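Model: Ready when you are.
Researcher: Fold this.
Model:
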Amino acid sequence: MIPKYLFKPVADLDVLAKILGITRQELDDLYHSSDSFFFLHERKQKSDGSYRDIYNVKKKLKIIHGKISKEFLKKVYYPDYLQGSLKDKDFLTNAKNHLGKKILITEDITNFFPSISKKIVFEVWAGFFKFSKEVSEYLAELITFEGYLVQGGKTSSYICNLIFWSRESELVDYLTKKGYKYTRYVDDITVSANKIITLKEKTDIIRRIYSLLKSVGAKPNRAKHQIMPRSKRQIMHNLSVNQNKPSMTKKKKNMIKAAVFECEKKFQTAPNSKEYLKLFNTTMGRVNHMKRIHPKIGDVLQKKLKLIKPQNKF
């Protein structure tokens, strides 16, 4: 149940430079100036009024991040309880783990990425990968900004999946023996059970999750903590999971249908405007998302949109 890296650890910086396809001098230069390559790409307001900062990285370091991902992070075996930002795993596969359960407990981690310090990232390289201290220090510096992990980096989600690497597997083993199902989708933790559980059992589950977060300096978003019995609507990733397959809420489906209707109206008056192109692309993305969950409805809406596709690409 534990993540695994079965390749030989990197012991010195000359070997690291060779793996990354750069000279030792270039590696040293990047190490000493890595913060200057990060820049704020987008600031998104969250439902609670706070902001999520999305960063990007200038090309030279971005290429190195890609190589770090390819040579190390993508070669890790990630167990099935990890569902976020991994090949063949996403919000939908995560939701399918918790269908039709008698109880659903969801927890959200507050500002997860910026709460992960360089020290914790170093411990992933040194403890999990078993790289030398010097190599681990360089890698931790290259992928963090001002001492912390940032959202948007090519390596960030992989690191998030590994920061609890030993402690999380112990928690999963414990919960599995108790008859619970545990998954984590980056910063969303879900535990479900096919049986009625007592208040004492619920408290024990939550306490253990919060202890896990505390071990790396992360904190739960208590406002998003939810315990959902089957008698009420059970929601995760904005999907209902009460039944034997995930489903969008009626409100969500109607909003997407309304967006398609809005496209049809806009097409009649301004089919080749920049505004319509933006509306069309956004709506098509929402319909494609819907089609994965409700194929028949999504297919009908997708065909409607294809009939009113804008011509100008600007």
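Researcher: Now this one.
Model:
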Amino acid sequence: MTCRILTLQHPQEWPKMSQWLQGRRNPGNEAEAAVQEILAAVRERGDAALVDYTRKFDCPDFALPLRVTEQEIARAAATVRIEDREIISAAAANIRAFHEAQVERSWFLTRKDGSILGQQVLPVDAAGLYVPGGQGGNTPLISSLLMSAIPAQVAGTPRLAVCTPPRKDGSVNPHILAAAHLLDIDEVYRVGGAWSIAALAYGTESLAPVDV
């Protein structure tokens, strides 16, 4: 997929933008049909479907297990440069401070007639987090993990399940695992694409479903 950016500093550039957008108005239904097929396969075949799609798109020799062990997470994190871990830690602290200021709180009001009004804010029990691995798994979007996991942690969600595509050799980029280790997340799965989202929604033999 390519991304094209047009700067609109001059009015004459608007026609260029309009022409570029023409092809995006009717994307067709090819992608939807393919995704529907993937969803059905995962729902019916579970782990077997995840293995098949991962072999097809990410890692030709992929095999179970899907889940990365806590020991693997810790070892991978230890291979990341201290400077990089410090950058991840600083970013995490900034993101956490921002979302802590956003937390919605429960409140209740008792009226003179005895009626009680208010709202109760509760976290979901489990959240699924998707972290792209980037081209070949070598340009991981660490920010995707930080900016989805930390708000869920601040909200009090007890279970976070992370899905990220494996590299060609079946491993997960150590920087993603370093970020997970920093956030005390121990549920990480070597699976990506639409099939991982289906697994999070429906559940498989290896991956229990999440709420959101």
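Researcher: Key takeaway?
Model: The first strand starts at residue 67 and ends at 68.
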